Amino acid sequence: MRMNEQLTLRLVVSDFLDRYVSALDQNRLESWADLFAEDALYEIVSKENCDAGLPIPLVRCKGARMVRDRVLSLRHANIYEMPVYRHLLSGLQCEVVDGTGPIDFSASFVVVNTTPVGETSIYLAGCYKARLSRVDDDLRIERMTAIYDTAKVPTLLAFPV
């Protein structure tokens, strides 16, 4: 892949990731759910499990309908203190599969949480490993795995990462 093609790909994926984390940070969960392909897979899993080859994630949504159902439950069924998250991203790596196919990417993330009383702390750190597909001049998530670095489950992991 030529330099200008690689830069364009990086810009397109970076823009997509900005939309992804912006939707989460601004509590626009319905917009976040719209980023998933109908047959998408969304998982949150510990690095410890990934390293050990253990396949059971903490959160798993198979298909966009399940992602939307999670949003509905967060809006109407679950009781929790509303988080204020800010995602910070770095280390974006991306490549097109088979030259013209889907796009695989990875990126590191840190999520900070600010409580209603104004305390800010690191909530979660880890990396995304994902595959995007092209749909009607836009991108959709085929697979998104958020791998968090600690074996300790953060409190209130109700919200997507």
UniProtKB/TrEMBL annotation:
Residues 6-145 form the SnoaL-like domain. Keywords: Oxidoreductase. This is Probable ring hydroxylating beta subunit. Its EC number is 1.14.1.-. Pfam families: SnoaL_4. The keyword Oxidoreductase applies. InterPro entries: NTF2-like_dom_sf, SnoaL-like. GO terms for molecular function: oxidoreductase activity.
